[in-house]
Design goal:
Distance between the termini: 45 Å
CATH architecture of the largest domain: 3-Layer(aba) Sandwich
CATH topology of the largest domain: Rossmann fold
Number of domains: 2
CATH superfamily of the largest domain: P-loop containing nucleotide triphosphate hydrolases
Number of strands: 12
Strand content: 15-25%
Structural class: alpha/beta
Number of helices: 13
Oligomer: single chain
Radius of gyration: 21 Å
Order of helices and strands: EEEHEEHEHHHHHEHEHEEHHHEEH
Strand order of the largest sheet: 6-7-8-3-9-10-12-11
Largest sheet: 8 strands, mixed
Length: 332
């Protein structure tokens, strides 16, 4: 499969009065043509910072990409100047932000906001841009698109606004679409419609999607591969089936155990005890060790090597590594 985007050993930090927060610590993943990669994890794990780093939207200061590469079409996005990045943002790589109301300008019509992206990246007339905008509203399921172009954001429901934001992101036919918690503010019925819309759009355009979410129910419906993030690191990654049916990292299992299930009568939700580590001074060993009921002495001392369980399934956990016994004897 063709690799569309590669993120290699990405480190992102934020300078604060209290010190340096190491928000992303060595994240590596590939995105393939026409697939949906979901990055999941609890709030504060670094998934949104990772997605914003790809678009180079981290405010500097206080944020900074310290090391790593973000490769798109042979170019390292971390080294591009702002004028070059503007040509890529919206045209080749687009992003859907969390809150559709704040993503839209309340003083401009929907038509003006969709057409702005087309006219900025492509040399077309206003009439041609309007035609494309109508096509995009039709694609995302907005009824009477010609009339809706003249309306303002407050005249739309939350679900409709999210569809408009998706239309804005897709208007220049990007190769990569980053969706940051695209269904968080929506009720369950509208969530299902938006997820179906993502699948339908991907079939029609073959766009590659990075889905940022904490909701494993969302992931189960649309993701091809899943990367589980914790404390700024990807601790496990694999296909949807591998992560849901063969989870190997205790944190992944904890996430799955805390999701309500309809197929098990009187299923009890099991919360993950404890709190995430302080990223002002992250632990040298496994960041989940303090919350893990399987933790060994080596887990506190040394970060685990990556164990390859299959072509796609990788995990950073000493429980899956035969070297753990040797490491225990070495550090004792």
């Amino acid at each position: 499969m063709e690799k569309v985007l590669q993120v290699k050993d990405l480190h992102v930090s934020f300078s604060t009065y209290g010190g340096e927060v190491q928000a992303v610590r060595g994240v590596t993943f590939d995105l393939f043509k026409g697939e949906t990669l979901a990055i999941v994890g609890e709030s504060g794990c670094g998934k949104s910072v990772t997605s914003q780093s790809i678009m180079r939207l981290i405010p500097n200061p206080p944020g900074k990409i310290k090391t790593g590469e973000i490769l798109f079409k042979g170019k390292d996005l971390t080294k591009l100047k702002e004028p070059e990045l503007r040509k890529i943002r919206g045209a080749d790589i687009s992003m859907i932000f969390q809150d559709p109301m704040t993503a839209l300008n309340p003083t401009l019509t929907i038509g003006d906001q969709i057409m702005e992206g087309i006219m900025q990246h492509e040399k077309v007339s206003k009439t041609e841009a309007q035609k494309v905008a109508i096509e995009m509203l039709t694609l995302v399921g907005i009824p009477s698109p010609e009339a809706r172009l003249k309306q303002f954001p407050h005249q739309f429901s939350g679900g409709m606004r999210q569809r408009i934001v998706i239309a804005m992101a897709l208007v220049c036919q990007p190769e990569v679409l980053i969706a940051d918690e695209p269904t968080t503010a929506l009720d369950v019925t509208i969530q299902a419609q938006i997820l179906e819309l993502f699948k339908d759009i991907q079939k029609k355009t073959n766009v590659s999607i990075i889905l940022i979410t904490h909701d494993l129910g969302v992931v189960a419906q649309v993701a091809d591969r899943i990367a589980v993030m914790y404390a700024g690191k990807i601790v496990e990654s694999g296909t949807r089936r591998e992560i849901f049916y063969q989870p190997q990292h205790p944190y992944t299992r904890g996430l799955l155990n805390s999701v309500p299930r309809l197929d098990v009568e009187e299923a009890e939700l099991i919360p993950i005890p404890g709190s995430p580590p302080d990223l002002f001074a992250p632990p040298t060993g496994c960041p989940f060790a303090a919350r893990c009921s399987y933790a060994m002495e080596v887990c506190d001392r040394v970060y685990p090597f990556k164990t390859h369980l299959s072509k796609e399934h990788h995990v950073d956990c000493w429980l899956q590594d035969e070297r753990a016994k040797h490491m225990v004897s070495t550090i004792s």
